[in-house]
Amino acid sequence: MSDLLERLRGRGWRLTSQRRAVAEVLEGDHVHLTADEVHARAVARLPEISRATVYNTLGELVSLGEILEVSTDGRAKRYDPNAHRAHQHLVCSGCGTVRDVRPEGDPMAALPSAERFGFTLTGAEITYRGLCPDCSPG
Ligand SMILES: [Zn+2]
Ligand SMILES: [Zn+2]
To answer: Where is the signal peptide (predicted)?
Structure first.
């Protein structure tokens, strides 16, 4: 469960009506929205909110570490409020639905030392692909 608004309140982040609109759009589970989608939904709550404000607010939330910037399709970046629980993504090739998933075991440990080329690992991002139940034939 994402509790973005609660976390932001806890940090004493000044919740203007504009910031609140952006944070409310990003509240919830399995939320992965592009900046344009965040803007469209924020406008529904606060018609005067500008694209620039939405972009700036997203940038701030990313630097605070309260939302993640993820790229699951190699195109538009998506914003993910599930920033405090390590997870990977399961993406539907049909409709683009993205689910947060936690594979068993540590994805970092899955890379044998012979395959690390002397790197010190700092993270691993895995994107699983497939068809969701709605997009599966039959
Ligand atoms: Zn689908
Ligand atoms: Zn996610």
So the answer is: none
